[in-house]
Amino acid sequence: MVRAYVLLTIEIGKVEKVIEELKKIPGVTKADAVTGPYDAIVHIEANDLGELTRKILHDIHNIDGVIDTTTAIVVEIEES
């Protein structure tokens, strides 16, 4: 399982619609509008890196209003 946070830049006036569309994507566990340099943050899960990439490039990037994304893949840290 691969998990990531995707930070989105969205066109003015389209944040609410983009959030609605994001929540329809399989694997999206959370999608929130936020303040700051980004307009929304999405938590997404996928079976592997290839599936994650497809979800971002084909599903998220194709939503009307999405300008740009920055992806932070969650890394597992083993405790000693």
Describe the protein.
- InterPro entries: Dimeric_a/b-barrel (IPR011008), Tscrpt_reg_AsnC/Lrp_C (IPR019887).
- This is Lrp/AsnC family transcriptional regulator.
- Residues 6-76 form the Transcription regulator AsnC/Lrp ligand binding domain.
- This protein has helices at 15-22, 49-60; strands spanning 2-10, 28-33, 40-46, 66-73.
- The longest helix has 12 residues, at 49-60.
- The protein has a single domain (2-74), classed as Alpha-Beta Plaits (2-Layer Sandwich), CATH 3.30.70.
- With 80 residues, it is α+β, with helices and mostly antiparallel strands.
- It is globular and about 45 Å long.
- It is built from 2 helices and 4 strands, in the order βαββαβ.
SSE inventory with pairings:
Blueprint: E1 2-10, H1 15-22, E2 28-33, E3 40-46, H2 49-60, E4 66-73
Antiparallel strand pairs: 1-3, 1-4, 2-3
Can you give me a brief rundown of this structure?
The protein is α+β, with helices and mostly antiparallel strands and 80 residues long. It has one domain (2-74): Alpha-Beta Plaits.
Can you give keywords for this protein?
globular, 4 strands, 80 residues, Alpha-Beta Plaits
